[in-house]
Amino acid sequence: MRANRILDTLAGQGITRRAFLKYCATLASLMALPPSAGKAFADALAKAPRPSVIWLPFQECTGCTEAITRSHSPSIEGMLFDMISLDYQETLMAAAGHQAEAALHEAIQRNMGKYLLIVDGSVPLGLDGAYSCIAGRSNLETLKEVAAGAAAIVAMGSCAAYGGLPKANPNPTGAVAVSDVIKDKPIINIPGCPPIPVVMTGVLAHFLTFGGLPELDRLGRPKAFYGETIHDRCYRRPFYDQGKFAKTFDDEGARKGWCLFELGCKGPVTYNACASVKWNDGTSWPVESGHGCLGCSEPDFWDAGGFYKALSMPARPLKLEPAAIAAGVVAGAAIAASSRSRKSAAKAAHETTTLADLEK
Ligand code: SF4
Ligand code: SF4
Fold first, then answer.
1. What are phi and psi for residue 135, nearest 5 degrees?
2. Name one GO cellular component term (predicted).
3. Tell me, what DSSP letter sits at residue 215?
4. Is 24 annotated as a binding residue?
5. 11 neighbors 4 (Cβ within 8 angstroms)
6. Which element (helix H / strand E) includes 224?
7. Of 13, 110, 121, 137, which is most buried, counting CB atoms within 10 Å of its CB?
């Protein structure tokens, strides 16, 4: 691992201190932390050496790696690779074969007990693990060896967190989650198919700043990002509350941006941050594109199926005050407005207030 500090590395990439402070303030805001946390992030990250990260891709589709690397520099997701020393990642590293294996073992020895282990993909146990082997060893063998020297483990994506699509019935490879086989290390689950990149960045920054994992929910997910349902933060929620539902993907209701509940949206039972953080540098997210949430950050979402079948729970319109309904209708009608311009305006307002706090 290179011994340079994160701030030096960022400076070498042309990222100014001001941009760095903006990043810290935004991160604190996204994680629902008080403004003082932005300063704590800035102070700790500026001094911290780049942490060693070993990333093991197992039984996966590479979607999680794709999601993390599809960043829009200088977005906060893009900073991920400047903040860490990614010492092993088969998909991204130049080395292959024996060289790659040597790099893995060198990274383990050099950072014993201190590195962060990221795993994406499930672990197949069937046929003694023969369904997925690297360098002649099963994923289970590799996981046990690398986990033994890790400070903490991040199970990235629904496959590593819950078994995911490979575990779907009839689970021909005997796929399990990381937490099913590793019991003696702190594990944080970042589910999603794929997971939202900024969640990974936030967890990493929290680990470096506060020396541990953020508060987790009952499924091992960071509460800051998985504490509310998609439905809680959905901009179509006012239509749900009024009982206005699109009946097909191309009817009048769909064109007006009405709620997708009757078209199978799983937002009411899905905990994730898509509705607030969005995707592709905050450009949009599935419901904003006109498709219901599939529930990809919940266990066994694939087996639950029924992606276009309404949840059996009844749609229960809340009793809202007329003023709240009117405000909701206005918000819902904004579906036609540019999401990017709305995002820029919100971001600018946020940065104006929190940057001032940080630069005191
Ligand atoms: S579209 Fe889905 S998440 Fe949004 S309000 Fe309707 S049911 Fe809830
Ligand atoms: S909207 Fe739902 S299905 Fe889509 S990425 Fe977010 S949690 Fe997954």
1. 55, 40
2. ferredoxin hydrogenase complex
3. P
4. no
5. no
6. helix 223-226
7. 121
Which ligand has an atom closest to residue 270 CA?
A: 2
Atom of ligand 2 nearest to the CA of 296: 8
Please list the rounded mean pLDDT of every run of 10 residues in the chain (360 residues).
Answer: 62 76 79 80 78 91 82 51 76 80 92 93 97 94 97 96 96 98 96 89 81 91 95 97 96 97 97 91 91 96 91 57 43 38 37 34
Give the tokens for residue 185.
């290390």
Give the separation between CA 2 and CA 10, rounded to whole angstroms: 13
State the DSSP string of 133-190.
EETTEEHHHHHHHHHHTEEEEEEEHHHHHH-HHHHSTT-TT-EE-HHHH--SS-EEEE
Residue 315's pLDDT is 53
What 3-state DSSP class applies to 52?
strand
Task: Give the closest residue (by CA) to ligand 2 atom 2.
Answer: 293
What is the Å distance from ligand 2's center to 294 Cα? 6
Q: How high is the pLDDT of residue 345?
A: 35
Q: Which atom of ligand 1 is nearest to the CA of 287?
A: 1
Where does ligand 1 bind, in terms of residues with CB under 6 Å?
Answer: 230-231, 234, 236-237, 240, 259-261, 265, 267-268, 287, 292-293
What's the confidence (pLDDT) of residue 81? 63
Q: What H or E segment, with its residue span, contains residue 87?
A: strand 85-89
Q: Which residue's CA lies nearest to atom 6 of ligand 1?
A: 259
Structure tokens at 175: 């796929």
Q: Which pLDDT value is given to residue 184?
A: 96
pLDDT recorded at residue 78: 55
pLDDT of residue 178: 98
DSSP 8-state secondary structure symbol assigned to residue 51: P
Angle at 20 between CA 16 and CA 24, to 5 degrees: 170
β-pairing verdict for 52-57 and 115-120: parallel
CA distance 141 to 146: 9
* Domains with residue ranges and CATH for the chain: 6-225 (3.40.50.700), 230-348 (4.10.480.10)
